[in-house]
Amino acid sequence: MSAADSNNxxxxxxxxxxxxxxxxxxxxxxxxxxxxxxxxxxxxRECQIAHRPQHKRECKKRAAELHDENLFKQPPPExxxxxxxxxxxxxxxxGWGYQECCGKIICSGCIHAPVYDxxxxxxxxxxxxxxPFCRAIRPTSNEELMQRIKKRVKAGxxxxxxxxxxxxxxxxxxxxxxxxxxxxxxxRAADAGIAKAYGNIGNSYHLGIGVEVDKEKAKHYYxxxxxxxxxxxxxNLGALEAHKGNGDxxxxxxxxxxxxxxxxxxxxxxNMFECGDATKEDYTKALQLYQxxxxxxxxxxxxxxxxxxxxxxxx
Length: 315
What we know:
Blueprint: H1 3-8, E1 15-17, E2 24-26, E3 32-33, E4 41-42, H2 45-71, E5 96-98, E6 105-107, H3 108-111, H4 125-128, H5 142-154, H6 158-170, H7 179-191, H8 195-207, H9 215-227, H10 231-243, H11 247-260, H12 266-274, H13 280-297, H14 300-307
Antiparallel strand pairs: 1-2, 3-4, 5-6
């Protein structure tokens, strides 16, 4: 191949064209895409406003499609893997615990596993009372617990911020009941990536706890939580859609929640099958998804911990 042929085969710079005035900027990033639909670009806000009447309908349709694509995408597990056993953290709150000493989320199997030395000898009770990750002694009083949580909050630990919000909501551990403070902290935690914080905000608007009941806002925050992997919020969305008569959306939410580790939607999906609103294949798939999840989180240590779960306290 000649040098000339080689040059001819090179890709030309892509052209950005303003949807309103037709201005072309080759190889330039000066044109900005419509933030809603991402389909068209404009050279300035004036062009975007001028083109809005022509673009509005198609923009709204594509924005809704993009929203649904993101909403119904299977998210990653909310908490990832346990940093000790490297097995997926269970979705249920009783299957894991937050360590206020080091800020780690650890599965119940590792939290309550017996501690042995390198000779295989069971260590004394003091060792059993240590954090399995950093080996700090567990707090012996609510005051000590709060000191550690406050320290983690001051350090910007998003999980601790979310926990502190719950304490303000309930007025526990010596804190006053203050929903304004709880919502402020949940927003901080959510902005830092804690999906369940969005879910808690959604619950507040759904039930009218500290704010006026607002079902649309509740749905908005449930969606943000669900896209972050929170299965409780995902199940709530399924229930909301079912209540509205949107069986297809309810089923899709239910399937994602089941795959994420929530067994709650299995009964509604079975009821949908019995009423003819879902197929036998749908219900079978839901059962299989949940069994797959159970296989992903199973370990002998976790089984032992679950057998004695009433004795355990999780923060």
